[in-house]
Amino acid sequence: MFMDAQQLSYGADLSGLICGYLFENQQAGRPLQTNEVIDWLKTDTRKPEGAFLWLHFNLAHSATEKWLHDHTDSPEEFFESLHQGSRSTRIEHADQHLIAVINDVLHDFSFDPSEIATLWLNLNSRLMISARRKPLKSVDHLRNAVNRGEIFHSPAELLTHLLRDQADVLTGIVRDATTKIDDVEDHFLSERMGRKRANLGELRRLLVRLQRLLAPEPAALFRLLQKPPVWMAENDVHELRQSTEEFSVVLSDMASLQERIKLLQEEIAAHVGEQNNRSLFLLTIVTVLALPINIIAGLMGMNVGGIPLAQDEHGFWIVVAIVVSFTILAVLFVYRRGDKD
């Protein structure tokens, strides 16, 4: 019997447990309540071969860390990682445990760099603990897979599935970002940029932050694969290696997308610079063409004696002819300079 999808929520019980599953007898995960989890963890009888738990916690709940201290054998390195300032992705050994810090996007991700949060993992041969402070996409995909009845044989297999879900989420982000960049490029070609230039900067900051947080992950996984824990099966190591390769491809696509954004920004900047130069050139032409009339009008408008042609009945037309002549000379001068350039 599996949880009804309509009953899924992001809340937690008094212990901070969002959901718990028991995997045994090569069957799909069975949901457990907190009291059942405690009984399973405390039992001294021999547990079925291959049986293990997945417990998912909400760290925003004040009772979560105390519950984990009291009822699990999580190493101190795990609790220290919950409060470290560094959020770079990594996976490391701690006794017979694996401690993982994985960055993911929020459940309602909307291309905001602030909508990136962290998921902490602690796993051994019998237990996988995941904890987060905000709803995250990848772990929810894993949770939905368990509720659909997908069968998992080990905590390492859960970890592999989670990493693949994370790669799928990032692939979707890259795909959506590519669509946005295509839209910006179309507006650029049609010379209707508007706010699209600002969108490029936001996308680039988002991709840089994602890559900065996620880039260490392949290196950390490769180090793990070179010397895996003794309880990790060879098949799990192989699957983990494949997920690492998939993740590396996503990071490579992300780097290529950043380079495309950079080139597009440079092209837009060059186009804007060219438009500014053209506008400045037109302004210079207008200034030069208006120079003769401004100078003559200034001279003839001085309220002093001896203004030439002041008493001549044709004086106005003579001045107009002089202004037109100088204007024509200025136009010829400007156009000749333009042809030389």
UniProtKB/TrEMBL annotation:
Main subcellular location: membrane
Topology relative to the membrane: Multi-pass membrane protein
GO CC terms of this entry: plasma membrane
TM stretches of this protein: 280-302, 314-335
Cellular compartment(s): Cell membrane
InterPro entries to which the protein is assigned, alphabetical: CorA_cytoplasmic_dom, CorA_TM1_TM2, MgTranspt_CorA/ZnTranspt_ZntB
GO MF term list: cobalt ion binding; cobalt ion transmembrane transporter activity; magnesium ion binding; magnesium ion transmembrane transporter activity
Pfam hit, one: CorA
Source organism, top-level taxon: Bacteria
Keyword set includes Coiled coil: no
Keyword set, alphabetical order: Cell inner membrane, Cell membrane, Ion transport, Membrane, Transmembrane, Transmembrane helix, Transport, Zinc
Similarity remark: Belongs to the CorA metal ion transporter (MIT) (TC 1.A.35) family.
Name of the featured protein: Transporter
Source organism of the structure: Undibacterium nitidum
